[in-house]
Predict the structure.
Amino acid sequence: MYNLTYKRAKSIDEAKQFIGANPDAKLMSGGMTLLPTLKQRLAQPSHVVDIGGLAELRGIEVKGDRLIVGAATRHFDVASSAVVKKAIPALAYLANLIGDQQVRNMGTMGGSVANNDPAADYPSAVLALNASVVTTKREIAADSYFKGVFETALEAGEIITKISFPLPKRAAYAKFAHPASGYAMTGVFVADFGGGNIRVAVTGAGPGVFRWKEAEAALAKNFSKQAVSGLAVKADGLNADIHAPAEYRANLVKVMCERAVQSIA
Amino acid sequence: MAKVAMKVNGKQMSGDVEDRTLLVDFIRDTLALTGTHIGCDTSQCGACTIQLNGRAVKSCTMLAAQAEGADIMTIEGLAQGDKLHPVQQAFTECHALQCGFCTPGMIMASVGLLKDTPKPTDEEIYHGLEGNLCRCTGYINIVKAVKRASQLMAG
């Protein structure tokens, strides 16, 4: 690892000021992506500003018709939370599939959403559930937040403070995990808000999370596995690598969507 | 260089480290607790697993400075004098190791998984140990040992 200066922020305001004054500083929450990146010398920030321990960024609560999760809430806390299991059980289920036990004990929702790895799990839940990403500057709707591979609408110095999820009538996540890394080769999150308002988000298959609108329209008419089975997924633009060609991932999109729907239909 | 202080295996410990020093290097090089192993450089193998404030984490994937003020337990802190921890006892009884390099991490991860899931199924054991690699055993006896430890801990 290149040399750097470690700074443990005492508050969000302090972190905000610090990264404002140090443009080459990098925020760290759980560090589950950042530290392996630094160990490989793939990044060289001047400072690492640790916001993972800030109590003001942690917590899970239902307020009205929304579930609100603090940005520094750990995956384990989401997976084991009675509040999440009652409000959006699919989100607790998803959190328990991230990485491994050790990663879930350190990694945070805000960190994952800020990083926007194209094979991460949380972006699919944020997009399918039409969540808002709340930052130190504003509230960003999921549809305009995710911008592609590791790209988001976040501006320099902007810090995610919480994610606010509207409560669906029902939702499910189905993931085909890479057997070694545990990342999603393809993961599909399906959310039904009632009245034909269905949202389907796909992670792992393309260069960033995306909505599968054909499936949304088909499921709005008929919420069943069969409604998805008749659809064709084009391989154009999907990821192809040594693990799977694009056609394989295209098929996984359909199969994972079918499985998610079947588990709640 | 900065001074870091934390509780390790019940004792207050401190030392001077560079900001970029990984916790595992502080544990091994400064505190000379070499039971915690480094098996990879990519945060994948889990040989460096310790308990941080009661949760299993990879000590190669955090900075020593992040652990300032934390309560750490390493493999050396598990046994009570000559009496092995039930997970250590079960690993010896079930021959859950061959070369033994991954064993400290396997044991610390197993302690973590049994805390959350005191009576795990095979599937739950696979899930709980996903972050730990063993290149010798094929995992069969490790899974047996976790089940045996579960029995021993239930008394």
